[in-house]
Amino acid sequence: MSAVKTAAAPAPQPAAPEQSNSITQELKVTAHLMALPTGLFSFVNEGLPNAAKQGGMPGVRISPPPMGGGAAEIVGFRADGWLSPDGDAALVRVRKGPANVLVTIYQLAGQPDAAPRLQVRQLLQPASGPAPAPEAAAPPAPEPAPEPVTPDVIAHIQGQGDVGARFGDWLGERGSKNWIEGFSINAPAGIDPADLTYQAVLGRGWLSPWMEAGQYCGSRGMALPLLGLRVRLSGDAADLYEVSCSATFIGGTSAGPVGNDETCEGTTLAPLEAIQVILSPRTRKSAKAKR
């Protein structure tokens, strides 16, 4: 009887891994601890024109810090807690300040124009004490004073209030440790305010919305320092003027001068202590070079 030879079946090959069609996008996440005084505040994530193309980014969350966050009550208008760039808002109530809230920003990495346009406004201030009793007799009316000259740049400085300066002069005092909480810039005569706009640096990759000339940018009485500024000329203002900005910061660092539409901020993002905005008429040579 002859033996029957059988061929061994080929060993099964491991199945190839399934190809995944998912795409992972890297996000840039930054967090800012913000101290708020007693009062009611609104946080609004204003819309970006291309937000829909960025997967709903930049997104913002307002939350209590890991410890000591019980002094602030946070109420959002969305159940999931997100502030999307569609104008979503949250309310923060501080009954006894100061109280810290954590502002966390999520944005697409590598896109400098993807920073959120986050507005913080104080809606209600704590009630003041009783009004002083009226005086027995009013003093005689003083002689009318000459009408003051409108400053070109106005800053709200911690402990000082609103202070003004002309273009080219420094506003704020270096070494004073009094930070700038907000500012405004007035347009020269004959210039459309929409052609002179500016932003404030609020944090790493976090800029305020653009403000037109004459509009206030920042806060008052909230102990929130600005960390830099950015000034942009367009239209007739860019044809007729050149702008540069310099700044000093608490701790001794400085930045600038920087030119049109450039951000003036320190490497350490220290609070802004003094600013200088120079607006000078263009010479014929510089005007031709611009064209």
Write the layout of secondary structure elements.
Blueprint: E1 27-36, E2 39-46, E3 59-63, E4 72-76, E5 89-94, E6 99-108, E7 117-124, E8 153-157, E9 161-165, E10 170-171, E11 180-185, E12 196-203, E13 206-207, E14 211-212, E15 217-218, E16 228-233, H1 235-240, E17 241-249, E18 254-258, E19 263-265, E20 272-281, H2 284-290
Antiparallel strand pairs: 1-6, 2-5, 2-7, 3-6, 4-5, 8-9, 8-11, 10-20, 11-15, 12-13, 12-14, 12-16, 16-19, 17-18, 17-20
Labels describing this entry:
2 helices, disordered N terminus, four-stranded antiparallel sheet, five-stranded antiparallel sheet, mainly beta, 4% helix, 40% strand, 291 residues
Walk me through this protein's architecture.
- With 291 residues, the protein is mostly beta strands.
- The protein has two domains: 27-124; 153-290, no CATH class.
- It has helices spanning 235-240, 284-290; strands spanning 27-36, 39-46, 59-63, 72-76, 89-94, 99-108, 117-124, 153-157, 161-165, 170-171, 180-185, 196-203, 206-207, 211-212, 217-218, 228-233, 241-249, 254-258, 263-265, 272-281.
- Strands 12, 13, 14, 16 and 19 form a five-stranded antiparallel β-sheet that branches. A four-stranded antiparallel β-sheet has the order 4-5-2-7, with no helix packed on it.
- The longest helix has 7 residues, at 284-290.
- The termini are far apart.
